[in-house]
Write a structure and sequence with these properties.
CATH superfamily of the largest domain in chain A: Aconitase, domain 4
Keywords (chain B): 4Fe-4S, Amino-acid biosynthesis, Branched-chain amino acid biosynthesis, Iron, Iron-sulfur, Leucine biosynthesis, Lyase, Metal-binding
Oligomer: heterodimer
Strand content of chain B: 15-25%
Pfam families (chain B): Aconitase
Protein name (chain B): 3-isopropylmalate dehydratase large subunit
Distance between the termini of chain A: 38 Å
Enzyme class (chain B): lyase
Shape of chain B: globular
CATH topology of the largest domain in chain B: Aconitase, domain 3
Binding site for [4Fe-4S] cluster (chain B): 351, 412, 415
CATH class of the largest domain in chain B: Alpha Beta
Helix content of chain B: 25-40%
Distance between the termini of chain B: 51 Å
Chain lengths: 215, 472
């Protein structure tokens, strides 16, 4: 996995709460058996005026001029500023894959849905929870100041604004460690293979009905 | 020391390692696999040259992409080549790694969350995961069950464990007695309406109280299925006689001495009387009316006797904007009566409501009646091949067909429209599924979440009606 230590990037403000994963990447694009190539269909139904289909050249499609990512000032944005309960709904990891493929590295919101939040960390994408009033302030600044960038430091757990204001955020130690070092967490878990085996042996004795029962 | 909640017990029983950083390794007893969220996980295993840790813990079936017509053609019947590749890929992966799969032609094929319980592959006390957020369904059996992403599917395949942080405990207690025509679906929609789509975020919800105690397993599955729509990955109900009776005699269920030992353990799977919950929400079941969602989030629900809300009356600006946006998308007017919403299609199915009891509930309503001429389509999609066979044995298919509903083959179907079953732009659908998000059932489609009984009643009337009037 790609490591994440620090990132500075242009901010795109998406002023809408309860953005669900169907909205992030609609179902017709989940038919792919790959992990990449979802970027052109990120927010497909908001971003384009027509109905998106798999395997189509999205560069030829009519854009919705009102959608934030279609505004020239947000071109190249890598920090998505969002509202509460971002990523609710389906567990599809295609949602973080699409955000990542588009070029986002950081998502900042007052709250995230659990499964989406977890999926981000598996893909080198950093979801940051900041207090609602701080997010409000960042929205105000990002909308007023063209070219507004934020600097995110995962080591120090801070978000720094262009004026030098710093906000700290929480992230649990294991996820932070994996992200900072770009660790494959399967590899980390397999370091405990013996422990898993001994748990399993014990469980085989106490709950034998859970093993080899397939018919 | 305070007693343990059901979640605490399930967590403790599956804890392999508590790490110093607060994360934990939790052992997974069962993984269910389907074609959409597994291909990249199998590919990951291959790239890292890893093998599945425990093959017999996995069970697979294609469900999201399968057609609900023309199934005699098997995989060849999948017209969309991209869908077909995904279903074929699941088959190849399962064959390569030796994982049991109910393939498209197998009569046991169906929606993962229907077939697990049906086979007894879902047993009380298990930890169950699947790359699908509605895995919370299995919590109805006193399981710790939740949806995971594809990276975690790979992690479980490779290690039989998940890295987890313990969640908080939440109790949703529904006491009283449900009125006639009020179902499990209405209960869970009312709960989501009350606590909101983020009300359970970070929590494992235990559903309890008199209403849940008196509910069938099918009803409990409907409630737990939609825990995720309240933001909770996990929904659970304590094990009782109803659970044990349901599990008995199923293909994967234990027998003989193992059965006795299992039942003894399962009987302990309830929260202790002195257990402490971080959050408690109470509802009076006798006050719940049939529910209809009017907006684009499952929390946007109203009583069938009620009206579409007026954004002007909402004080919170973000909520007001949300209501305005939803009404615009849904093509509804503020203050419009719910019963004035006209429908184009009716969908009875999905992992929320496609089990035998759901089909019986709908059949009672349509029996001897006819689907409204104004509808373009009303379809019933059973949750599995075995549900379909059972329904046909009971003659439910005849009731539906005579009333003018279509009787389809099993799969996820129009719940998320990955196959050919979808809404056209601007069409209103009374749907027994779980999500009314924009575009969920088709580009520009407008979903109204309801119970099977309410969907059936709407099919007859062509618009929403209070099913209680039809049952009298």
């Amino acid at each position: 996995m790609r490591a994440f230590t620090q990132h500075q990037g242009l901010v795109a403000p998406m002023d809408r709460s309860n953005v669900d994963t169907d909205m992030i990447i609609p179902k017709q694009f989940l038919k792919s058996i790959k992990r990449t190539g979802f970027g052109p269909n990120l927010f497909d139904e908001l971003r384009y005026l027509d109905e998106g289909k798999p395997d189509q050249d999205s560069s030829q499609r009519p854009l919705n001029p009102d959608f934030v990512l279609n505004q020239p000032r947000y071109k190249g944005a890598s920090v998505l500023l969002a509202r509460s309960n971002f990523g609710c709904g389906s567990s599809r990891e295609h949602a973080p894959w699409a955000l990542d493929d588009y070029g986002f590295r950081v998502i900042i919101a007052p709250s995230f849905a659990d499964i989406f939040y977890n999926n981000c960390f598996k893909n080198g994408l950093l979801p940051i929870v900041l207090e609602e009033k701080v997010v409000d302030k960042l929205f105000d600044e990002a909308e007023v100041l063209e070219g507004y960038q934020l600097t995110v430091d995962l080591e120090a757990k801070t978000v720094i604004t262009p004026s030098g204001e710093s906000f700290s955020f929480d992230v649990d130690d294991f996820r932070r460690h994996c992200l900072l070092n770009g660790l494959d967490d399967i590899g980390v878990t397999l370091e405990d293979a013996e422990l898993i085996k001994s748990y399993e042996d014990q469980r085989r004795k106490t709950a034998p009905w859970l093993f080899g029962a397939s018919q | 020391m305070a007693g343990k909640t059901l979640y605490d017990k399930l967590w403790d029983d599956h804890l392999v390692k508590q790490r110093e950083d607060g994360s934990a390794l939790i052992y997974i007893d069962r993984q269910l696999l389907h074609e959409v969220t597994s291909p990249q996980a199998f590919e990951g295993l291959r790239l890292a040259n890893r093998k599945p840790w425990r093959i017999d813990a996995n069970l697979a079936t294609p469900d999201h992409n399968v057609p609900t017509t023309d199934r005699a053609k098997g995989i060849e019947g999948i017209v969309d080549p991209v869908s077909r590749i995904q279903v074929e890929t699941l088959g190849k992966n399962c064959d390569e790694f030796g994982i049991l799969e109910f393939k498209i032609m197998d009569k046991r094929q169906g929606i993962v969350h229907v077939i697990g319980p049906e086979q007894g592959a879902t047993l009380p006390g298990m930890t169950i995961v699947c790359g699908d957020s509605h895995t919370s369904t299995h919590g109805a059996f006193g399981c710790l069950a939740h949806g995971i992403g594809t990276s975690e599917v790979e992690h479980v395949l490779a290690t039989q464990c998940l890295v987890q942080q313990k969640m908080k405990n939440m109790l949703v207690k529904v006491d009283g007695k449900l009125g006639k025509g009020v179902t499990a679906k209405d209960v869970v929609l009312a709960i989501i309406g009350k606590i909101g789509t983020a009300g359970g975020t970070g929590h494992a919800i235990e559903f309890g109280g008199e209403v849940l105690q008196n509910m069938s397993m099918e009803g409990r599955m409907t409630v737990c299925n939609m825990a995720i729509e309240a933001g909770a990955r996990v929904g659970m109900v304590a094990v009782d006689g109803t659970t044990i009776d349901y599990v008995k005699g199923r293909p994967f269920s234990p027998t003989g001495e193992n059965w006795d030992a299992a039942v003894k353990y399962w009987r302990t799977l309830h929260s202790d009387l002195d257990a402490v919950f971080d959050k408690v929400v109470e509802l009076d079941g006798s006050e719940i009316k049939p529910q209809v969602s009017w907006g684009t989030s499952p929390e946007m629900v109203a009583d069938v006797t009620g009206n579409v809300p007026d954004p002007a009356k909402e004080e919170d600006p973000i909520k007001r904007e949300g209501i305005e946006r939803a009404l615009k998308y849904m093509g509804l007017q503020a203050n419009q009566a719910i019963t004035d919403i006209k429908l184009d299609r009716v969908f009875i199915g999905s992992c929320t409501n496609s089990r035998i009891e759901d089909l019986r509930e709908a059949a009672v309503v349509v029996k001897g009646r006819k689907v409204a001429d104004s509808l373009k389509q009303a379809m019933v999609v059973p949750g599995s091949g075995l549900v379909k066979a059972q329904a046909e044995e009971e003659g439910l298919d005849r009731i539906f067909l005579e009333a003018g509903l279509e009787w389809r083959d099993p799969g996820c179907s129009m719940c998320l429209a990955m196959n050919a079953d979808k809404l056209g732009q601007g069409e209103h659908c009374a749907s027994t599924s779980n999500r009314n998000f924009e575009g969920r059932q088709g580009f520009g489609g407008r979903t109204h979440l309801v119970s099977p009984a309410m969907a059936a009643a709407a099919a007859i009337a062509g618009h929403f009606v209070d099913v209680r009037e039809l049952l009298n």
